Amino acid sequence: MSDVDDPSSSSGEESHASDSSSYSNDRKVTMHLYLYQNEQQQPSRYHKYDGPSLQSALQLLNHDDPNFKFVKILISDDDREENTALKSLDDVISAGRAIAKSATVENLGIMGNHLRSNEFDDGSNILLFLKEMKGNRSIRHVELDIWDVELDVWDAEEFGEKMLRELEPFLKNNPNLKSFVVEHCRICHDALCLLMVALMNRDSPLGSIELNCCYVDDEAVKFITYFFTDNPKMTPRKISLACNDISDVGYFFLSEVIGNDECKLEEISLIGNDSCGLTGIRSIVSAAAGREIPMKKLDFPADFMADTPDQLQEFVEFFSLFPAFVPNCTQFYCGNFEVSRDALHALGNMLAKRSSPIRALHFNVSSIESDGIVTFLRTFLENHIATPNSIRIGGYSIRRVSVGDLHVVLGPLLQSCLCSLESLTLSDIGQISDNEMIHITSSLDGNTTLKRLDLYDRIPSACVVDRLTSLLCDETTIMSTYNSNHTLNDLGRHMTDPKLCSYLELNKKTPDKGLVATAKVIKVHFAHNFQLGNFDSMKSPVLAQVVSFVNQGFHVWNEAFNVERDLESEGGEEKEVANNNLTVNFLMVRNIPAFFDYVKPR
Description:
The chain is built from 21 helices and 18 strands. It is α/β, with parallel strands linked by helices. The termini are far apart.
């Protein structure tokens, strides 16, 4: 412990958790060491660790077992495996030194949350571990993710600086290090200076640097770009500054690095910096467009909100100039102002230049023109581009949209082979008549992508419920049932009919649509009383195939039927539902072994 600064010596405060903290002193924060062979074996809340104990792991590390290349240090107050815990300073030192000497470990993750001071640890154990492992020369990837830090003698920024100070020799001297990731750590300017100096003094640049959710602001970005501008050859190929506090000013600083022809940067991620607007994005895209070697990937904030007509016009003009970068915008929200027909036409033409579909397109506007929406949606058909995954059209003061007119374009759109629409919401568009509802429902005939159709506050009438039920399960013939819609699984909060809801639940819970179709065929055509004589004219191979077809969806149908029964019995005495089991005749046919001799395995 003497090798690490004693935190208690630099402060008069006692090392105990604040009384206001929800994590009290009696909760033991423990470090655990996990050694595993691949990422699939990584312990998590969903995957219990079943690897070697601490003592076995230390032996494997000391003997450089080539099968174990992943090490994870987890700091937690949860009840975890006792045999992996670093219970003493000797354990911490032994673990650090074993990793320092290892020639086979390639990936190191140090992770934890809710770090509080208590009698067992005040943060010094983590620093001691980092100090001891700094001599390692085999690790290629390091991820440091320690968040929600409340220590008595160090605040979160000071603790982040101390961790990077201990890692500085490792970052500088490990020639095999390719990737360094820091997440959820408060990085002050002093800590950033330590990091950048260590990286600039390396013999070769890293391949990737990620500082995500680290409270990086415009001044920090200016500091980073200063080093890379002076040493462009040390610029990594990938930089991620996602989910920070970077505005347009910080984007301007980054554009200077990107525009340098000596810069090796190929990918940059700035998603989650919501305070940045188009002005900052324009500076980076313009710099990237002027490079001799093009950028491979630019990730900007995923959402764009146009609150004024000028902002919408700026958005359209910008991405018309740089259509190659349009795919980086995955969601577009248009709200709080009147959208003209011309603006919608320009937006549609802009989206037509995309190489991949936009994920979400929402119009929640104060005023919108019906024919403008129809013209906009028709753009997807005329330009042969994929539809968004989600479309929402609504607004409290929206003008009357003719749903019948909307159906004229929705029908071909939903039935197009390029349709990727999974969610369609039509809200606050006035009272939709039953005929208009049936028009919209008819658009879904043959559609295999739409999962959610939400008409918001529209309470369906009996005829609309019947039409939707027929859409999900057409009972006319076996083939019509088999070819019904097996994808739609959400019709909003007002769809409460038990039979309809059972079909929606069946569509939702069963990924294999072939089994869904089979279950519906069983329900409609095989679950009623019938005579065994119906099968008499069938030859054995044909009969065997029919029985096999029904058999494969038998358990799916039973589960779906239970859903319908439960829905009908909610809120009162359970109702008796007829035909809740297959007929005795069918069960007899189903269990004749001779028939299955003719069935080929699928």
